[in-house]
Amino acid sequence: MINTKEIYKALEQVMDPEIPVLNVLDLGMITSVVVGDDENIEVRMIPTFAACPAVGFIQGNIKSVLEKELNRPVTVTLDKEIIWNSNRLSEEAKEKLRNFGLAAPQRHNGDGYVEIMLQTPCPHCNSTNTYLRSPFGSTLCRAMHYCKDCGNMFEQFKPVE
Amino acid sequence: MQTNPLQQAITYLLTKMADDALILGHRNSEWTGLGPIMEEDIAFSSMAQDKIGHALGLYSILHETYHAPDPDQYAFLREEKDYLCCHLVELPIGEYDFSLMRHFLFDHADALRYEFMEKSSLEALRPLSKKLKGEIKYHTLHANAWLTQLCSAGDESYARMQSALDYCFPLALGMFERREEMEDRLMDEKIYPGEEQLKEAWLERIYPILVKSSLNLPDPVNTSPINGGRHGYHTQHLQPLLNEMSAVFRLDPTAKW
Fold first, then answer.
1. Considering only CA atoms, which of B89, B229, B231, B234 is closest in space to residue B168?
2. Residues A95, A62: one domain?
3. Which of A33, A105, A151, B68 has its Cβ near the most Cβ atoms within 10 Å?
4. What's the pLDDT tens digit per position in A49-101?
5. Burial of A100 (0-12, 13-18, 19+ CB in 10 A)
6. Distance separating alpha carbons of residues A125 and A127, to the nearest angstrom
7. Which pLDDT tens digit goes with each residue over B33-81?
């Protein structure tokens, strides 16, 4: 019987195509992993944004990486009951984001985003003397900010409830 | 798709919401490459992508639970009269003031719809509504920021926003066009609060932002709504848009993408 730990270990290799330093576990995209009686593996996942164009691609990557690593049939289905939100990102994931040059999402409590997005720390110089330039950026999950101290524009993985 | 009356009403509700998102999504995408500044080009393109994703979410529920065709076929292969979008979303993008005002008026209504739907008795709709509600917060945040800034940016920009509001308001009231036989069933089942309640909540939601922007809201009681869309009657602008957006899909509807 295959151990689910091995499956999780293999999932660490499946990276997000738009933020290549984060894997699907860092992003909190995996909602369950089940090994059936026939030793087949079923992975359930959720997209970050409803319109994320990479969902099908990530689904395919999970399947091919796990099948290659574990040598048994894998099905990957979309979990309709659980909704992704940015608090699902692990602390480790946020650290990886900052090292990649992207500000991490603030923890939110389901209220508006305006207040928490003011003074987002700059990933280049750590200053909080920054302002939200636009709530939209180069991918659906990013917002754009400007740092008044180091004079750089920077992007943030934005908080979503 | 011959089903019982309640299923017909649910299909009507999800179709009109999804069609609004699909058509406005396509309109917003027409700003790609043309935005007045780069951030706005990106913002309208991102909102376009969001809207089309929202439409897909709703069409998928229709397909999986209510016997509608596959989402792509449903989105691209219907006849014009079978679309239920309101006239507000059909109009070409025009000038930036019009597109911004349409976005402001539409997205506040859209946000409210999903806030209500999150508590709907229709279970299939609740998780999606919660998700979309969170995403649309960025749309209203964006609209509010630009509206208030442009209204305090000088006489010309203020005047243009006021005239955009005057022009859009009767069209925006058309978002709340009622189809009683459908609505009554949905309200009886507590699936949906009804357009009248949504409209009241919307007016309350937009009013403080308009006040902050010093804009005058036209009198909602004495303004005739521009209706028709929810009954399948559309502006001259819809059919050319449908032709364009489905042109590639129609080349081979069975193609795998």
1. B89
2. no
3. A105
4. 888 888 999 999 999 999 999 999 999 999 988 999 999 999 999 999 999 99
5. middle
6. 5
7. 999 999 999 999 999 999 999 999 999 999 999 999 999 999 999 999 9
Helix (H) or strand (E) holding A73: none
Query: Which residues in chain B come in under a pLDDT of 70?
Result: 1-2
Contacts of residue A133 in chain B, CB cutoff 8 Å? 39
Give me the number of domains chain A comprises: 2
* Burial status of residue A91 (CB atoms within 10 A of its CB: 0-12, 13-18, 19 or more): exposed
User: Closest approach of chain A CAs to the CA of B42, in angstroms?
Assistant: 6
Any chain B CB within 8 A of the CB of A113? Answer: yes
CA of A40 to nearest chain B CA: how many angstroms apart? 25
Residue B84 covered by a domain? yes
Chain B interface disruption, residue of A49, A84, A136, most B CBs within 10 A: A136
Give the CA angle between residues A56, B38, B210 to the nearest 5°: 95
Q: Which of A45, A78, A111 is the last residue of a domain?
A: A78
Number of domains in chain B: 1
Residue recorded with tokens 């009231």: B173
Residue located via tokens 């449908």:
B242
- CATH number of the domain within which A56 lies: 3.30.300.130
- Residue position matching structure tokens 């036209």: B218
**Interface check A60 vs B, CB under 8 A:** no
